[in-house]
């Protein structure tokens, strides 16, 4: 056991004095390859659009036609349906049922 106690400090000192080697995955044999591929070429610049400048003699552009609303709002339809139901002298429950059916058509 005594020789073991004497050899341990020598082995520890020898291990600390020997420099560590590179990891095997870090060793590249042969020529050094390029680590990064070259960057791709930049994209072409976007086309520049220059709007035409209006000339003094040109007629002004014609305005676009305003399309009428295809359907009236729900509130307007329900008001008209309630008015029609009231004119027909329906009871409040019948007026509610009539206005629901009338406005959702």
Automatic annotation (TrEMBL):
Top-rank lineage group of the source organism: Bacteria
Region (Disordered): 31-105
Identification of the protein by name: Uncharacterized protein
Signal peptide region: 1-25
UniProt biased composition (Pro residues): 35-63
Keywords: Signal
């Amino acid at each position: 056991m005594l020789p073991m106690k004497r050899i341990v400090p020598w082995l520890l000192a020898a291990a600390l004095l020997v420099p560590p080697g590179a990891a095997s995955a870090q060793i590249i044999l042969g020529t050094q390859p390029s680590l990064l591929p070259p960057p791709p070429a930049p994209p072409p610049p976007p086309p520049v659009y220059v709007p035409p400048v209006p000339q003094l003699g040109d007629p002004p552009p014609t305005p676009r036609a305003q399309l009428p609303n295809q359907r009236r709002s729900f509130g307007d339809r329900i008001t008209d349906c309630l008015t029609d139901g009231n004119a027909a002298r329906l009871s409040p429950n019948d007026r509610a049922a009539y206005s629901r059916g009338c406005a959702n058509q």
